[in-house]
Write a structure and sequence with these properties.
With 210 residues, the chain is α/β, with parallel strands linked by helices. The protein has one domain: 3-Layer(aba) Sandwich (Rossmann fold). It has 6 helices and 13 strands. Strands 1, 4, 5, 6, 7, 8, 9, 10 and 11 form a 9-stranded mixed beta sheet that branches. A hairpin with a 4-residue loop joins strand 2 and strand 3. Helix 1 packs antiparallel against helix 2, helix 2 crosses helix 3 and helix 4 runs parallel beside helix 5. The longest helix has 19 residues. Bound molecules: uracil. Uracil binds next to helix 6.
């Protein structure tokens, strides 16, 4: 598995405002979107393209276009939705699927409670969006779900991650092609499984507590 921790000062600057508990909800939403666009640039470094011939006003030349099947963006409900616009802004022709993951309170295992994805993901590059890589349980389950559907290349994009979360994804990835892109790698988890220093509950800060 390839892990990329973005080291750009603009990302760190935006993350600092995002982490601040005084940052109001509209600013928080906007920053998640902006951060996502910056992370998407890094995450799509190996997006599949094919050559295409075009004519400029001056001459014929060769460029590239995204290969078919087009990339699939999969925000994990609910907090991943806050990242969707930022990603679509950079890759407007990508398709979008949805996965809802929640912890089963009896088994404590992550389960899929909602799914809207193509029946087969054969040959697809998938980009999974989940802002907080904490224990990694639900993201690992989401990645396995996509491989079980036939995906052969999965990139997960998270605003913040922890060493524990990275290890959980590494284990889930095995020898399959997984790339993990993080805005920052934080210290770890507190006893309530919140990322430290983190930014609190991303879903609540995006959408309130309803
Ligand atoms: N999910 C969040 O929203 N925040 C955390 O710190 C951990 C998981």
């Amino acid at each position: 598995m390839r892990v990329v921790v973005a080291g750009h000062p603009l990302i760190t600057h935006k993350l600092t405002v995002l982490r601040d508990e005084r940052t109001p909800q509209p600013t928080f939403r906007l920053l998640i979107e902006e951060l996502m666009t910056l992370l998407a640039y890094e995450a799509t470094r190996e997006v599949r393209v094919e050559p295409v011939e075009i004519t400029t006003p001056v001459t014929r030349t060769t460029g590239v276009r995204l290969s078919e099947p087009l990339p699939l963006i999969v925000p994990i409900l609910r907090a991943g939705l806050g990242m969707l616009e930022g990603m679509v802004k950079l890759v407007p022709t990508a398709e979008v699927g949805f996965l809802g993951m929640a912890r089963n309170e009896e088994t404590l295992q992550p389960t899929t409670y909602a799914e809207r994805l193509p029946e087969s993901l054969a040959g697809r590059q998938c980009f999974v969006l989940d802002p907080m890589l904490a224990t990694g349980g639900s993201l690992a389950a989401a990645i396995k779900f996509l491989f079980d559907r036939g995906a052969d290349d999965v990139t997960a994009i998270c605003v913040l991650g922890t060493p524990e979360g990275v290890e959980a994804i590494r284990e889930a990835a095995g020898d399959r092609k997984v790339t993990l892109v993080l805005g920052a790698l934080d210290e770890g988890l507190n006893d309530r499984a919140y990322i430290v220093p983190g930014l609190g509950d991303a879903g609540d800060r995006l959408y309130g507590t309803a």
